[in-house]
Every structure is written in C-alpha cells, then in structure tokens.
Specification:
By secondary structure, the chain is of the alpha+beta class. It has five helices and 16 strands.
C-alpha cells in the first residue's frame, strides 16, 4: 500500500503556561494602585512544588506463581520496594494520580507566571519559521496521483488525489497540471478531528480499486488505534467496518475487500495478525452483511512479536516474528 505515515496532531505542544495569567496581567494594567499592589503580593508568593506521597509497595522481579514471565526469568525472584508504585495508572482514571498531576501543572503555571510576553514572542517566532502552506510531492497509484496539502491556520493535513487524464503512465514521475483532473479529497483530517484534544491518523491507504480509503485513528495518545474505512467518492464512513484496538499497520488485499491488521496482548506485545473481510454492500433498505475477522497467526512466545507487510503484487502476505531480547 502506498502511504504516508501521518501524525496529524494539532500544534498544541506549546508550554502550558503560555496563555496563563493573561487576565490577571490585563486587570493589573487597568485597575488602581491598590489592585496592582495586591497582584504584586500574590506574584511574590513563592511557588511550592508538590511532593508525591510515599506508599510502600513490593514489586517482584523474576518468577511469579501464576504469571508467564517468559523463559530465563530470575529464579529465585528479587523483591524491591517501590514507594511510588501508586503513580502507575494504566486506566488513566485514578483520582489521586490525577490530583497529583494537577498539582504539578499548578506548580508549572506558578513558576512561569510573569513570562507570558516572552513565551508568546518565542512561540510566534517558532511559528514564523514553519512553512504552513505546503504541498507534498505526489506519488502515482494506478491512474491517480496522491498527495497532501498543508494550509495556513489549519492544524491538520488534507489528503487528496487527482486523476491522470493523459500521458504515458509507465515510468513517469511528474505531470503537467493540464494532464490531471480536478482535486478530490481523500481525507480531511481537520474535519475528522473536530475539537478533539488529541488526534493522530496513521497507516492510511487507498484500496487497489481506488474506491475506499482505510486509515487508523488514535484519539488518546496511547498508540492503540481504531481502524476505519471510508468511501472516497461519497465521504461516507463505513461504520460496520470499524476495527477496534489495532496496532501496527493496515494493508489492503488485492480484491479491495480485504484488510490485514494486528492487535496486542495485555503486555503490549503484537501477538496476532488478522484478516478482515469487509461487510458486503447491501441493497437500499436492507442491512449489510457483517464484516468477518479471521485470525491468521498468533505468536504465543512472550519474547517475540509479530509484524507484517504485503508484497508489491499484493498476492502474498509476509509475516515476521522477531525479538529484541534474543539473537
């Protein structure tokens, strides 16, 4: 699958304290001397960093009864105390952890108070050096050329294509404007993201018959994706073909009705490769036939993980099992 690896994040990585304290500063500029003195007194108050509480917790390294720690795990095991184990929150919803992070943010805001003007100046300088309007080199797939555009003031890329109207396709790398049809939007990532605080699109690619586009969305930052399929011509999402909790890449099969994807186990190891047969299109007024997922391969060895790719002809699927801990 010809594809770009797209990280369509909004430019929200600026320091959190950039926009903080603006209201207080504005108020101090327009109120009387008493308010200015009060604001100065508040500003003079020292910033106190939060101190994480310590809760003893034993962590076992090595063999644990009832758990698969893999071959070569330490036996006998070693037990170490971790006073800050409570800060581990895989579910991202522990109230005490969230409260501590909020306290850390408040400390950062306090420490950066009074530097808002400098922060804005630095940020604007960084933005001024970024080429916000840009068009990528186009690549050919079938009778189309695909590319992306970046537009000023728009946080995400727009992926598009144009049909090749004339010219020799074999070996040609560039086309004149008059040799191409009008632009057709494949993915408008800004429209997909909406007002999401985090939005990342990866592993997108058009089907071999160029009627559909498959792409993966991460809306949490956890690098676990939701696979989606969209009709390029109509822009309609095929909700019946959504794939949950996928990782790695998405690859089309030759028939344009098959997708290959992978998932992870509880240890975050890519341990399975699946084949998804898309739901059959239904006649108007009838329900589509459901999509079918078939497990092609599972890696049971906890020291190994799977990756895959398709051959250029799309007739073969290459699956690789590898380990970073063995030779």
């Amino acid at each position: 699958m010809e594809r770009f690896s797209l990280r369509g994040r909004a430019p929200s990585g600026r320091a959190r304290w950039i926009a903080l304290g603006v209201k207080a500063i504005t108020a101090a500029a327009v109120v009387g001397a008493a308010a200015v003195a009060a604001a100065s007194a508040v500003a003079a108050k020292p910033c106190v960093p939060p101190v994480a509480k310590q809760i003893p917790h034993n962590v076992t390294f090595g063999v644990v009864a009832g758990e698969d720690r893999g071959e070569g795990a330490m036996d006998p095991p070693i037990v170490q105390n971790d006073d800050y184990y409570w800060l581990r929150d895989d579910a991202r919803n522990a109230t005490d952890v969230i409260a501590h992070l909020n306290a850390e943010n408040a400390y950062a805001n306090c420490s950066g108070a009074g530097e808002e003007t400098l922060a804005r100046t630095v940020f604007q300088e960084l933005v001024s050096r970024d080429q916000q309007v840009d068009v990528s080199p186009a690549f050919r797939s079938g009778k189309f050329v695909y590319y992306y555009r970046r537009m000023e003031g728009v946080p995400y890329r727009l992926y598009a294509r144009r049909r090749i109207l004339s010219g020799d396709l074999d070996g040609k790398m560039a086309w004149k404007d008059e040799e191409l049809g009008s632009e057709e939007v494949v993915l408008n990532v800004s429209a997909l993201a909406g007002d999401a605080a985090y939005f990342s699109v990866d592993f997108w690619g058009a089907s071999p018959d160029h009627t559909l586009v498959a792409y993966a969305v991460d809306s949490t930052g956890g690098e676990v994706y939701e696979g989606r399929v969209r009709d390029i011509k109509t822009g309609v999402e095929r909700s019946e073909d959504v794939m949950s909790n996928i990782v790695g890449n998405l690859e089309w099969g030759l028939d344009s009705q098959t997708l290959f994807y992978s998932t992870v186990d509880s240890a975050w190891r890519t341990n399975t490769v699946w084949r998804r047969t898309l739901s059959a299109r239904a006649e108007p007024g009838t329900s589509p036939a459901p999509a079918v997922d078939e497990l092609l391969l599972a890696e049971d060895d906890p020291e190994y993980g799977l990756s895959f790719s398709v051959s250029q002809s799309r007739r073969y699927l290459h699956v690789r099992s590898s380990s970073s801990d063995t030779s």
